[in-house]
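Figure 2 data, in text form.
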Amino acid sequence: MSERFKIEAGGDRAALRSRIDDACDRMEKIYEVDCYPKITVTRHWSKHNPVISGEIACPAAYRWYLRRELLKLAVQGAEIQIEPSRARVDLNSPSLLRNIDESDLDITRKKLFLFGPERVDLSIQRLEHYTGTKAEEFQRYVLLTNYQMHMDAFETVFPECRKPRRPGVQMPAYHQKTENNDGVTIIDIGVGPSNAKNLTDHLAVLRPDAMIMVGHCAGVRNHQEIGDFVLASGYMRADRLLDDALPLSVPVSPSFLLNRYLARVLEDRQLPYRVGTVYTTVDRNWELALRGTLNDLQASRSVAVDMESATVAANGFRYRIPNATLLCISDKPLHGRPKLPQQAKAFYEETKKQHIAVALGALDLARQEFPEGLPNSEIRSLDEPLMGGSGM
């Protein structure tokens, strides 16, 4: 397994695609014998970074991504070389945490991939543990929820979806599996920003094309009604979870394209919605300490309160994943309509299928207009990896 595998510049797209499939096979075989595959890309047209190389892990888990990104480079005339690198690090090794520490990344060096192989290995193990499903089953489009009823509604649409292989998993995932991984995955992440960060930290290594938070919220404006939808135009990050990794001074906004698709579906279905700032709190009982929250709501012009959306959006920004928020108003505590059992049950029964249908409709539009993935240039950075997705 020591020999190098090369894809030379030139050739038609079909021939290049076949060679890249062979390259992916080679990477998977290298990984199976406990080595990290190393990819070297030579771009003769690049003045400052003609040769870039990097190690990867678990290539089978995101083969669709490797095939797409390597084909883009090959079509442009890049030469690609695959070879074994160093031995895989045991995930029980004391050196693991040093190897995956992302606090001292050199932003002046162009990388091949956003994550190192140890980080990918660990995150895929964690993702499979939490969701009860294999990484290879995850699809390019991801819905995040914290309600089993949304999972049930998803299963109604896709009765043959792949489900967890064991009972009692913490964050169950269902997958509408397709041949090219262009279906939809839904994950019940549970409640709160810590869960939202945990899941999206690990999901990011699979490089999904889009993720949408499908949740409930408290409406705070007079002219909102229970059952109305909310699309976030921005976020007030009162979750405090990513403040060190992403300063509050950095503006975070959802994907314009995803918001446009969501709005189109809502309007086609004649469903009321409002666009505005979503206030994401770490305190589930924010109503019990109202003065500070009211000041924040007033200052931010927020239209809704939830516990996950800003965290998902901040991690989407950090990891270059186009994302959006589709919330449905379940209560209006500032107007004497708190969430109570009887009213909540009726609301859930009425809205759950509709909520999932809107999200799926928006992802259908995204898939039709951008089959190779949503443009992500607005969330690319100075240290952007070469295999960075559709904004390349």
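Caption note: The longest strand covers residues 210-219.
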